[in-house]
Specification:
five-stranded mixed beta sheet; 34% strand; 4 helices
Length: 168
């Protein structure tokens, strides 16, 4: 009986930590700026994107906590896998993402294949300004728990993104 009670408690704790996190379609007023905010490099090719071009790929929403409590909530943007496919670099073994301050993070292909990683353009449906970690940032569905919620994953949650480069 004691073993059964212990197992019930264990499974209850696991279910409290791991939640269903769903990505959903979003319709928001489109941005109209054609100012380049992102450069994508793949092989010999370099492509510039405006915020409007990124969002035109297909806006999605994701509600999740983050490693920074002030950032919890709903994020909107495009799935990283969809963006990389659109840019023609989704077959790369990993991507190098660079921020305004030259911080870089490597994101392996397994991440965008396994999880609904978001290239976020908005938080709580508002465009992300640089002072709020915008205009682009990587958001993982952290609330699904498991390895994605491990603290060492924080290094991949890069913000103020300026460049994405395919690494073969």
């Amino acid at each position: 009986m004691r073993i059964l009670f212990t197992l019930i408690l264990l499974f209850s704790a696991i279910n409290l930590q791991a939640k269903d996190v769903e990505v959903f379609d979003v319709e928001l007023d489109p941005v109209t700026s054609d100012r380049v905010i992102l450069t994508v490099r793949g092989g010999e090719k370099e492509t510039a994107y405006s915020l409007a071009q990124v969002e035109a790929i297909g806006l999605k929403g994701l509600k999740t906590s983050t490693f920074w409590p002030e950032d919890y909530g709903e994020y909107n943007g495009v799935l990283l896998r969809d963006f990389l496919r659109h840019a023609g670099i989704d077959k790369a073994s990993q991507i190098r993402v660079t921020a305004l301050d030259d911080y870089t993070a490597l994101i392996p292909r397994e991440d965008w294949q396994k999880w609904d990683v978001l290239l976020a353009t908005r938080h709580e449906r508002k465009v992300l300004p640089v002072r709020k970690k915008g205009p682009l940032r990587i958001i993982y569905p952290k609330d699904i728990g498991g390895e994605i919620a491990a603290s060492d994953m924080r290094i991949r949650w890069i913000w103020a993104i300026t460049t994405i480069e395919a690494i073969q």
